[in-house]
Design a protein that fits this description.
With 181 residues, the chain is α+β, with helices and mostly antiparallel strands. It is 58% helix and 20% strand. The protein has 4 helices and 4 strands; from the N terminus they run ααββαβαβ. A 4-stranded antiparallel β-sheet has the order 1-2-4-3. A hairpin with a 6-residue loop joins strand 1 and strand 2.
Length: 181
């Protein structure tokens, strides 16, 4: 009988342990697994959102840089209102470099650019300095044609060339200045 009680207690204990494991521990394990999966899923979403946020910030930086670049390019393009300003700058550069200038706007048809012919009289170093200033102007300029001729004694007889000396040059530069369309 004593063994019988022990067996019954043992069986009841085993049943209670079995029921507590099946009814208590297994659902807790399943709940933990579900929470773990949910946590991993949310962790992946957070990583994705972080990457997306960094990508967006990079895009915003790139956009701002692009905007600044577009503004800079637009400032380098000539428009109808800035033609007089451009011609005055050319005249100032010619005066600064001690060149006598004559500037013409050419009637070439190109909707993307304006064309100018700049005729200069002066020494070769003065002409070279003019080209350096021209290259460093705040406009997009392309030299289309360049003609240089050294003045001779015959040329110096002409009234408009008084004040120049043998060895000075007469030059003609055709440039294309890109427009803001």
């Amino acid at each position: 009988m004593k063994y019988r009680k022990i067996y019954i207690n043992l069986i009841i204990s085993i049943v209670v342990i079995f029921l507590s494991v099946t009814l208590g521990v297994i659902p807790l394990i399943n709940l933990t697994k579900a929470k773990s999966k949910d946590f991993k899923s949310k962790q992946q979403q957070l990583r994705f959102l972080k990457v997306k946020s960094e990508y967006r910030k990079d895009l915003e930086k790139d956009y701002k840089k692009s905007e600044e670049g577009i503004e800079k390019i637009n400032s380098m393009l000539i428009n109808e209102e800035r033609v007089i300003e451009f011609v005055k700058e050319l005249e100032d550069i010619a005066r600064l470099t001690k060149n006598q200038e004559k500037i013409q706007i050419l009637n070439k048809t190109d909707e993307k650019a304006m064309f100018f012919r700049i005729s200069l009289l002066g020494s070769f170093p003065s002409f070279f300095h003019f080209l350096v200033y021209l290259e460093n102007m705040d406009y997009l300029i392309e030299v289309q044609n360049l003609r240089i001729r050294r003045l001779s004694e015959k040329d110096l007889i002409k009234k408009e060339l008084s004040g120049f000396k043998i060895g000075d040059i007469e030059s003609e530069i055709e440039i294309k200045v890109f427009k803001n369309i």
